[in-house]
Amino acid sequence: MTTSIADRLISLGHTLPQAPAPAGSYAPAVRAGNLLFIAGQINLRESKHAPVGRVGAELDVEQGQQAARTAALGVLAQIAAATNGRISAVHRVVRLGVFVASTAEFTQHPEVANGASDLFVAVFGEAGRHVRAAVGTASLPRGAAVEVEAIVELAD
Fold it and tell me: How far apart are CA 119 and CA 128, in angstroms?
């Protein structure tokens, strides 16, 4: 029996959200050959507890990591939607782009991005280890603290 992405997340104490619909004229995920490109997913969900604001001002590093995990759950929801939820459909997580809304003085973007990276490794094991960019930005859509995008290599 193949473990699903949702089942793995439950074992880690998380719930797979519904794959968010795009907020504009773009696709949430596009497959090109065996690569799946996931559009940026922000940390805002229906939850009233989603951290908003800038890391280094309204939020600390730990809250930024929580925001990164929440945004990563949106990416995982898009992967699950494209693969019928099968972990075995993912050969490798190739790259994450993590954008952190932060103050100009804030320099711990990699530590915030670890919130997303660690979740991918926990879900996919070594296949979840990826290259990454962690970038600071003045603001993100809808006041989000973190946005995560991904490139995933599919097995089939």
Answer: 9
Q: Is 114 left (phi over 0), alpha (psi -120 to 50) or beta?
A: alpha
Distance, CA of 102 to CA of 153 (rounded, Å):
30
Q: What is the pLDDT of residues 96-119, one digit of tens each?
A: 999 999 999 999 999 999 999 999
- Looking at residue 51, its pLDDT comes to 74
* Both tokens assigned to 137: 């930005």
Q: How far apart are the C-alpha atoms of 110 and 123, rounded to whole Å?
A: 20
Which residue, chain included where needed, has tokens 């939020």? 59
3-state SS assignment for residue 27: coil
CA atoms within 13 A on the CB side of 46: 6
- Domains defined along the chain, listed by start: 5-14+37-154 (3.30.1330.40)
Residue 23 structure tokens: 């907020």
What pTM did the predictor assign? 0.95
In three-state secondary structure terms, 48 is: coil
Residues 6 or more apart whose CB falls under 8 angstroms from that of 1 comprise none
DSSP 145: S
